[in-house]
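ok trying this again, last paste got cut off
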Amino acid sequence: MTIEDLIVYGKKFLHTTNVKMLLANILGLDSLELLNHLDEVVSEENIETFKKYIDTIKENKPIQYLLGTVNFYGYEFVVNENVLIPRFETEELVENTIAYINKLFSNTNLKVIDLGCGSGVIGITLKKKLPNLNVTCLDISEYALKVTEENAQKLNADIILLKGDMLNNINEKFDIIISNPPYIRDDEEIEQLVKDNEPNIALYAGPDGLECYKKILASAKEKLNDKYLMAFEIGREQKEDVISIARDYFNDATIESKKDLQGNDRMIFIYN
């Protein structure tokens, strides 16, 4: 079978993007390169591997966990069942945060903490794009921190790792707090693929989905320098609730929301 034959076969079961991602991974090619090799004959061993991968994905397993990596902001990160699979919305959070940093701060030697870092995609990407940042990645899960550590080593990012529950037991001050925390209601219906595979501790945040925002914002002021920025990813219906919580603790700050590329309110920025 040729690469083109396998793409046609795979499209019977999976989205074209996932088919190309699988084949590219197996063949050691970039997804775009596949188009230049459509007539190339694939070995029986690789055909067998490809079909096994498809069977596994059909059994409700995320392709990212199967491959063990995901592309985020142009960098390849390791992921496994101990961390969330990064989404495009989180890339937008990082992109907007970089813009805010460049707008608000004249110095670049800033201290940043990524709360609930998971695989470390936020903190590590910020460090890669703005190397002068002093980045701390914090998570309550030791397993998640091991993934972050692996990614930091893989991408040669000099960061600090901390185990903890948000800002509890943090005894230093930061210029920037950033987080994509759990924000799903305990009774909220979510995609079965996500529910069955991704860590619940990184998904659910109490009966209203707001527990992490309350916890962070209640203690954030004493952990921030006078000039600060906070950046949060939020659920698409949580804008007003998160702004209301922020106002309780930061009534003198500027609070702005940003939409994602789909037109949903998915980011909150608080700064002074």
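PB: full thing came through this time. The beta strands are 69-72, 75-78, 111-115, 134-139, 160-163, 174-179, 224-233, 254-259, 265-271.
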